[in-house]
Amino acid sequence: MSQNDNKKVLIALDYDDRQAALNFVKQLSPSECRLKVGKEMFTYFGPEFVKELVALGFDVFLDLKFHDIPNTVAKAVTAAAELGVWMVNVHASGGFEMMQKAKEALAKYGENAPMLIAVTVLTSMDQGQLLRLGIEKTPQDQVVYLAKLAQEAGLDGVVCSAQEAHLLKSQLGDSFKLVTPGIRPAGSDAGDQKRIMTPQKAVAAGSDYLVIGRPITQASDPVATLQEINASIA
Ligand SMILES: O=C(O)c1cc(=O)[nH]c(=O)n1[C@@H]1O[C@H](COP(=O)(O)O)[C@@H](O)[C@H]1O
Fold first, then answer.
1. Looking at this predicted complex, what is its ipTM?
2. pTM of the entire structure?
3. Topology of domain 9-233, per CATH?
4. 20 to 30 A Cα–Cα from 24, which one of 35, 80, 140, 215?
């Protein structure tokens, strides 16, 4: 499985049309990006779609953000490993034992195990939304808190916003991977994202992987947009 860290862009394939997604993917090379399949495409098109992308040679991040009892999540990440995905995620708020059991379940796959990362605070959340959940910490403090829990549970990294990347790298070390959605090239629409950053600033802050969806997939020329972003962070 490729670990080429020069491929920082993970394209969020959030399409409701399988053929439209595949038409786009067929213009891409596995040497220039990785692909993320999330809840929308997985719910429409299932594991067969994921296997198809893996068979085309792409590293696939299966973004289903598992959050359930430890036994169920351990079995779900095992099912992800069976699909041959490169990365899979859980919600850190599912708890320490859930994360630990998920990591243990992947041990049998050795070096072929997918990277296991934990979502901290969604990039669509801000202080006001955390307060409405009864969480009085700042988003940054809550991200650091959950990231430390994920690291202690043995996970490979976290999903966070690039705004927290510098702090997390300084507190958790360089090898703990930071996957950052909420990436918005200058001038692009934030949409529902709250904690955003440009690709260049995200990489400078310490992001290992940039999850980018709409700024690429809804661009008038998605392939050219990917290439521009790759050039800007090279
Ligand atoms: O786990 C994720 O990938 C994720 C976590 C998070 O905190 N925020 C977030 O936006 N995502 C995903 O990243 C993608 C971002 O897409 P765009 O906002 O279109 O760039 C979507 O597929 C989200 O589901």
1. 0.99
2. 0.96
3. TIM Barrel (3.20.20)
4. 80
